[in-house]
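sorry to bug you again but im stuck and you know this stuff better than me. below you get a single protein, a line of residues and a line of whole numbers that encode the local backbone shape. mainly i need to know what kind of three dimensional shape the backbone takes. anything you notice is useful, everything is just below:

***
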Amino acid sequence: MLNIIFTTLKIKVFLLTFTLIFVSLSIFANTGNIDHEKRNNSSIKRETNNSHKFTQKQPPSDDYYQRDFMKHGDFIYANNIKSVLFNRKGWELTPPIIELNSNERLILRFDDLDGDYKNYAYTIIHCNALWQPSELMEYEYIQGFYEDRIDDYAFSRNTRVGYTHYQLEFPNNNMRPIISGNYIMKVFLDGNPDNVVFTRRFMVFEQNLTVNARVRQAVNLQYRDIMQEIDFRINTNQYHISNPFRDLKVVITQNGRWDNAIYDIKPRLVQGNMLIYDQEDVILFEGGNEFRNFDTKSLKYRSLRVNEINPVSRGWEVILLPDRNRRFLRYTTANDINGRFLIKTDDYPDDMLDGDYTQVHFTLPSPGPMANGNVYVMGELTGWNFTSENRMEYNYRDSRYELVLLLKQGFYDYKYAFLEDNTETADPSVFEGSHSVTENEYTILIYYREPGELYDSLIGIHHFVSDI
């Protein structure tokens, strides 16, 4: 009897040991797979740069812009798409804003680094004041086709990096918006609207109101030297608004940024037809600093902020002079284009087809890496986004942040910004400082939703520049 019990116990111990070993091996195998996937994801960008084809969806990462697949904002989803420009026709440095039922047109331009022809198409999506899709059907805001192809394209010339340049003029005979408001232009491949390549914001407005605005140093002494306060008045004399507190939404942007825009501002006072917005400590923006910039219009000589120009296996390498932290430096005036970039080449006659691509090296010395967040190169050159593409890496050996961006020849503005983990508003002041006398561009956008309507119309817009 004892032998049987002992034998049974040995069998149970053996089975338990085998089970534990099997589970351990399974966990180890899964861990190896996870590590392998991480290594593969981290090498996607490196492999893409070395391959002939650049087409590659942006890999998932911890960036907040990757939480959903499609964002209703300015975002590129494929690595082969570069140098997206969207502005008013004839005015390269203007935002994509046109007046409803006017002769104004927008020009969309972009490069495909695969250098072949692709069947690109586009559509537009009407959005509310907060850039979420309106509750409208296409026929309620589009006249013409709901989708259309981009047929205007040409191949690059005289370049070490080959690409195909696409161009679209909008509105056109095939598609035009019939109501004002916020819009998203969505570009997609092969007639499949779910195969999104990139998205871009644009706005269509009606000027039914007049606005008077000014920028001044913050009234609150605590912020007087670093913040700019916006005071403005809206005259509704020619456009009746029964309840401005309920039906109006006012948004203010600084230099075209949307991550630090101030939304849904309410008037402090209503005096007849005049809406007064002058709340202390409410409409405040950091003054920031003038943008840094560099010039790569020519690759035959070193220009502004360029230290070295070297030919590489595919393209060019441009090494910028090391930057420095300006947080505690005194403010000095400087010419900039408020965060924008201009595609331009002095080496050949056609900027769009003859301009070459360069691997631009940014370096920012820092005694140590920043904790609880990441450092980014910020500006229109990165779509004002904060993704793995423009996130800087810290070099412990040389005590500095580094980043390489593939950029077309031209003139570029940029800043360095710190984005704290789990936040969506970047802080350039960590590296740039902030001064209330800095020159900035502001835009006031006034949206109105009539009682019973399903969308926000854009009934007023006002651009102005700080002059302190």
